[in-house]
Design brief:
about 350 residues; alpha+beta; Beta-Lactamase; five-stranded mixed sheet; about 50% helix; elongated; coiled coil; kinase
Length: about 350
């Protein structure tokens, strides 16, 4: 027995089935109209299929669904008295069906051997041609897929190397700023050095995560944010008695969303250290990041002295507020600022879509 799945039908010219040879088809098959074994959506197409066999003596590779909605390839021919149809889930399976029928020969009373050879030869040749074309197309597709996979791996390796080098360069900049800051005596100038060093370290940490994850475009922001805040806390608060509280959800964000958020956090943290807790003031800095319904909210709060009386953050031209507002606009985020027993910055945004 030939290893094949499908069916072979002998029909009259009206499309009424006279005999069915079933090779593992899992729906009930019985004599009647050819249309009865097909999904109703394919009935019109099946009628055109039968007409083409009647008019042109053969029809090659028509795709139609059985009643169970499994897609089959059908081919058929006519000897002038009957219509013979083979159907299989695979195109090359139709050739196997005809060969199986040759072995089983349930139709030998309908055609003489010579007539059978005459009507089959064109169909076999056409199906063989189609099968050869399909095999060639598959080989070409496999070749292109192999080339694409190689190109993708090369691109991933390049991106990993870029992230690694960017991280190393940023850490070098941070180290140079740290060395130089040892010779700075003015406290305001020293704070500028620390701010620049913090920004470089934050970006280095980001590229390090990209390098290690291998994702290159997506960052697990919750995990990154926890590490970033610890780094900022130990960089700026060793001379102040400040506490850090965090309430951070896990979420994967696009790199184009993360970069502005990181720069905003750097600015907010350094501003809080410089202005919210003057002298040796004690207090608490609280940061929360929450996932909501399709959006995210980042809040930065302190219980320090609050904004100066009469200060309007929306019209302020101070460097810090200009940077924060500009970055929030880059995110298309809603920025709100409240000053009541401290200061609270709230940023609501959506993830960047590339």
């Amino acid at each position: 027995m030939v290893d094949v799945k499908g069916l072979f039908l002998i029909m009259d010219h009206g499309g009424i089935i006279e005999k069915i040879v079933n090779y593992g088809v899992n729906i009930p098959l019985q004599r009647g109209s050819f249309l009865n074994i097909l999904d109703t959506a394919c009935h019109e197409k099946a009628s055109r299929f039968i007409n083409e066999i009647r008019n042109k003596k053969a029809a090659y590779d028509w795709e139609m669904n059985l009643k169970n909605l499994e897609m089959y390839h059908f081919s058929g021919f006519s000897d002038g008295e009957r219509i013979y149809v083979a159907g299989s889930p695979e195109r090359e399976g139709m050739i196997k069906i005809y060969r199986a029928v040759e072995i089983d020969a349930p139709w030998r009373g309908g055609l003489t051997p010579s007539k059978k050879a005459d009507v089959n030869i064109e169909l076999f040749n056409e199906l063989t041609r189609l099968n050869n074309e399909l095999s060639a197309a598959r080989r070409e597709l496999l070749k292109k897929n192999t080339e694409l996979e190689r190109t993708l791996k090369e691109k991933e390796m390049l991106l990993r190397e870029i992230n690694h080098r960017v991280k190393n360069n940023l850490m070098i900049i941070s180290s140079l700023l740290n060395l130089q800051s040892r010779y700075v005596k003015d406290l305001d100038d020293l704070m500028l050095f620390k701010e620049a060093q913090a920004k470089a370290r934050s970006m280095a940490l980001l590229h390090e995560r990209l390098y290690r994850s291998g994702k290159h475009k997506r960052v697990e922001f919750g995990e990154y944010l926890r590490g970033l805040l610890k780094d900022l806390y130990y960089s700026f608060t060793h001379e102040k008695k400040l506490k850090l509280e965090t309430h951070i959800d896990d979420a994967e964000l696009d790199i184009n969303t993360v970069v502005p958020l990181v720069l905003i956090l750097n600015e907010l943290f350094t501003n809080a250290v410089k202005h919210a807790f003057p002298g040796e003031s004690e207090g608490t800095v609280s940061v929360s990041f929450k996932r909501m319904n399709g959006t995210y909210r980042l809040e930065f709060k302190d219980d320090g002295v609050g904004l100066p009386e009469g200060f309007d953050w929306e019209t302020s031209s101070t460097m810090g507020m200009r940077i924060i507002k500009s970055l929030a606009e880059q995110l298309n985020a809603n920025l709100n600022v409240k000053s009541d027993n401290g200061t609270c910055f709230s940023i609501e945004f959506r993830d960047w879509k590339g």
